[in-house]
Amino acid sequence: MQGMAMRFSLISALRERIQEAPPIDQAIAEAKKRNSFRRLGILAGPLFAVEVWADLTPGLRLRGLRRLPSNYGAGVLGAEAATWGAISPSLMPHSWWAVAANVAICQGAGHLAGSLTNQTLARIIRSSPAGKNDRAERVAEGANTALHWAMSAATVAAFVQSTRRHAAQVEMVDGQARNKQSNAVIGVALGTLGYGTLLALGEALQAVVDTAAEVFGRRLPPVTSWPLAIIAAGAGVSIFTDRLVIRRFLSRAYKRAEELDRQFLPGADRPHEPERSGSPASEESWDKMGRQGRAVVAGGPRKRDIEEVTGRDAKEPIRIFIGLGRDRDVEDAYEEMVDAALREMDRTHAWARRRIAVMSAAGTGWINDFLTSGFEFVGGGDTAIVAMQYSYLPSAFSYLADRESPVRSSRLLIEAISDRLDEIPEQERPTLYIAGESLGAYGVSDAFDNVEDFLRRVGGGVVTGVPGFARNHRELTAARDEGSPQRLPVVDGGRNIRFCAHPDHLLHDFAGRPYANEWEAPRAVFAQHASDPVVWWDWALAYRAPDWLKEPGSRGVPAPKAQRLDVPATMRWAPFITFWQVGVDQLASQDYVSPHGHNYHDEAVAYWAGVLGIDLDAEELRRISQWIHQDATKLRHAGSKRKRPSY
Question: What is the pTM of this model?
Fold first, then answer.
């Protein structure tokens, strides 16, 4: 009985405690409060960081801002939408750093667009009677929540789809497995961090504007003080960026490039053949020719190599390269260099060769080995190559800072050689060709006033990866035959100029059809891959969809198989995002094998064969290309005494 009484008393006590206990939700809240990290001061910093990260991370941030200011809401929506574009297909597969760069900048741009749109709509709503309606506000709030969840789901779907397309794109350009799907996760994480950094910089700039407005506001009305504050802050940022960042960066880059120009490539031995600049018989000093200039005259086939590989008689090829020596007057450097080139041509008897090619370098003096050696192999060594260095800067810096030098140097050299050729009887006169890649292609192609001037003055040429801003390239593309795509134009039925993404296009157009016209002299090839961002990037891409993103091969519409498209057909244009993506693609454009991206190797030999009108079978082309590969590798990589490659 006593035990039973004790049990009833315990039950009664528990019943009383339950009746006195607060509701379950209140109990949980009080427990959280008692054990709050903030209250205990434990992990407060990391928790804050996690909450900020959740506010910034695509997919998670749309559940509601925890730490970021509430007025960031519209900007976050814009950033979320921009994320879909940032991880969408572009011209090249994206490594982790490319994903990070795309995500950071595109989210920043989306945030700005979302904020501006929200401010505009807010003014319109506040000025309308409906803007003060409580029911309308509740409906808008519910719609906003639904929109957030829908966008989060779309982000997850976009990411999954992006990883699948990335794998397919890597396979398109024969890429290795180095661009793993995990890189996309890393890229998004780092890009989100970059987005947060941009927001912090924006807040700092806003603080500067507010401070300046407060100072100006002491003497001026708000209508004047705010514009002045914005102008002052913008001017300050511009001056700081120009003088302390850009100028210093370019100055150091130029100094570093000049130092690099003095160095010697380990495989570039001084030539002993009198037909080459820099040899003991040459007026051009070996030490002053520049790093890449020495590679040009040291590399390439000799007479015995051409005969061994082709099985035909050959002559000793002539290679002339004039370096931007430090002892030359900067103001008149190009004129002096042209005179030096003509003297070298006189010394080597270049005027007696069947073919002369003016080749423009890309930046530091680098010339594609497949353009130089390919010309000599196909031409049987009865050739002379003439080139000049126009800058110490790498091609990327020249691309941004100096677009005049490639054209000016090429024009002076071509005009001087053309004038001398005019003095030679027509039946004895060598045929003049031009060649170049990237900035070099821009230099030699725009050295002519127009396309007609080009066809009148030269016997042909091969230019590869011409930048999108090149004038004559644009003129040719704009004049393409109706129905032919911007990526692979057909000009005048293929009569003189043929655009190629693959050697097959020497014989047929983008649809696999024979050209309407026979290929007449002068013959020229403009080689450009669909995946070469150097060709397709330009400023207008930021605000206008180009034809190549309206044609088959984009927007999910497949291109003809004969076009040899090596980019996803799902690519679409988006304001600014496509501009930025293709710009970033340029940094990785040489990471994949030819014929993809900004690499033009074996195919260049076939292009020279087509331009010179010399039939070479597949086995001959293979042997020539293999020899050039081996020669270029030994020329530019460390080793002892350089040996001639075998085929």
Answer: 0.84
